[in-house]
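Students often ask what a holo structure prediction actually looks like on paper. The answer is less mysterious than it sounds. You provide the chain, you provide the ligand, and the output is a string of discrete structure tokens encoding the 3D arrangement of the protein together with iron/sulfur cluster.
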Amino acid sequence: MNAVTDVKGWCPGILRPMASGDGLIVRVRPRGGAFSLETAATLADLAARLGNGHIDLTRRANLQLRGLTEDRLPELRAELATLGLLDPDTVTEAVRNVMVAPLAGLDPSQAFDVRPVARAIDDALTSDKRLHALPGKFGLLVDGGGAISIACERTDVGLAAVGDAFAFGLDTARGTRWLGMVPPAQAAEAAIAAAHGYLAVATRGRMRGLDEAAFAQVAAAVRLSPMTGVPAAGGRRLGLLGSAVGIAAPFGRLEADQLRQLVKLAADAGAIDLRLSPWRAVYFGVRKDAGVLVLEEARGAGLIVEENDPVLQVEACPGAPDCKSSSVDARGDARRLAAIAAAHGYRGSIHVSGCGKGCARSLPSDLVLAGKAGAYRLIRKATTRGPVERMVDADEFEALFQHD
Ligand code: SF4
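The corresponding structure tokens follow.
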């Protein structure tokens, strides 16, 4: 097993943790987009016993345990191996980036269950060693349509159910280009053919960086029939969703106790697993009579169950004290900022960053506050690297909205 590393630009894994201000971060990738309730309960216990109890829900629908130390890693790995979550090596875990529709098999408006296709892709990424040359951030998604869809998320290769087949797409600089249709029985094969096609033209970068000739070569590696429909744009929805619920963690941070509570709520409501999503929210099935109570209890546990919650408007990294690069309590300040923004009816996107690196969001935001020396650089309509308007203290937040 490889030594601990803090190389930036890599996603942390179980075998390759990443150093942060609060210790090591270990990313756990589910298989098929879900953790069984037993597995989720064990992960909560491991987070509390071997880490510092902080758990991140990531934008790639994974879960991260924080605050680990090197001497705890062997025990953690042994436990995760028992759960079937340990890959054979760092390369395998790095390429196993498959996002799955969170309501697959739960949403009756989906024409079919897409999880077998996602599992087949996961298996191929694990077993086909030629695919281990894929760049570490190369990702695939399998969407089922229906009440919530992940088809609009950016991954290198996309499969999105439309009617009784999949639309097949590749990422470009302008988003996913849907190229044609493929039946479910051949969908995993098509996705893997595209991954091999990518390796024939590049071994670094992402699909969106290919020139037209290289892109056409990748597309030609996949056999498709003409498009019969375009995937719905979809996106995050929270609360009661028919026979399931969606519950978000503020800024993507769950505490071990909150995860335990979610597991108990899910079990009491008749669910068998927790589904992860790219929206830092989890989903699970509920009996018809249980959904409202589940949402009430989740709200009481400090989680987000409504789409119009002001905290969802704000992205924030952990900041101090979790991250040693920060001099500000980014998440505490982000909560106060969210409340002030909502009181002013502000609808723009907000990013509060502990420092100029901007880990929580790489895209521009309408309002950006990037920590420096105990205060914030104020930046508008840019990333944390945009031009600085002026410095602001946390007690000046109210004034930020008087000109917007
Ligand atoms: S943006 Fe800065 S403070 Fe926030 S997590 Fe990244 S390095 Fe740490």
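The pocket of iron/sulfur cluster is lined by residues 317-319, 323, 325-326, 353-355, 357-359 (CB under 6 Å).
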